[in-house]
Amino acid sequence: AGAETVKRAVELDVASRFQESLVCYQEGIDLLLQVVKATKDEAKKHRYRQKISEYMTRAEDIKKHIEKEKQDGKYHKQIRIEENATGFSYEKLFQEYLTEIVSEVWVEDPYIRHVHQASRCLLYNFLRFCEMLVKGPCKVKTIHLLTSYDESSGRSQQISGLEEIQQSLRNYGVTLNIEFSSSIHDREIRFNNGWMIKIGRGLDYFKKPESRFSIGYCDFDLRPCHETTVDVFHTKHTKKM
To answer: What is the pLDDT of residue 150?
Structure first.
């Protein structure tokens, strides 16, 4: 497993996908260290240690490169989600940026509302996103939501749904600030550690499940996606709403 993970790290490294490569290097090194502990053959131990040392050196170089790009405001990673692709839950997209210092989150999405279609209530998508934040490892205390009013008959459901989410978050020590704008059209999510994620479809990139009892209804990693593009940036200062 360690060898496969490091092999993937090298592939990502060659493809200049440095952030993903760094994660794989770190995971692979941890796995190889466990192998070293369990190996009694001294010659094998020596070879493993040499390789681990090489991977650690490369991981440190990548870390410095990423940090420089962040400082220069040049960091940009793009993820292409293909039509019907799976494995793109909110956890998979956001988890690596939710470091322990994240305490404040900004969400701008004009369509956080109830949709009158079975199993396609965008309020639930936002709720799932909030659940991910509550689970950590970040220590989120404040979430700012900027969205638009539902101009159809669903406005009362939209407001009551958001208020229920607001109250539920309060039980976990998290404040949800809600603002409405009639001119908002961009979709982006920002964390106060400087990471900013723009998704072409916002939080609504999952397809409607076939039924309430089909695989993917509960687990978003198994839910097919609409085609969309995710752009990840790092900025020195996250703007306020």
So the answer is: 86
Q: In angstroms, how far is CA 61 from the centroid of its own chain?
A: 24
Bridge partners (DSSP) of residue 231 are 78, 198
List of residues 6+ apart from 72 with CB closer than 8 A: none
Record the pTM: 0.72
- Give the CA dihedral 11, 13, 19, 24, nearest 10 degrees: 50
- Read off the amino acid at residue 71: Q
Q: How high is the pLDDT of residue 236?
A: 62
Q: How far apart are CA 81 and CA 91, in angstroms?
A: 15
Written as six digits, the tokens of 214 are 């089909």
Q: Crossing angle of helices 155-170/122-135, nearest 10°?
A: 10
Residues of the chain with pLDDT under 70: 73, 115-120, 236-241
Walk me through the domains of the chain, giving residue ranges and CATH numbers: 1-72 (1.20.58.80), 76-234 (3.30.870.30)
Strand 76-81: give its sheet, edge to edge: 76-81, 228-234, 195-199, 188-191, 104-108, 142-147, 175-180
pLDDT digits over 104-118, tens only?
999 999 989 876 544
Token duo for residue 30: 């941890």
pLDDT recorded at residue 20: 83
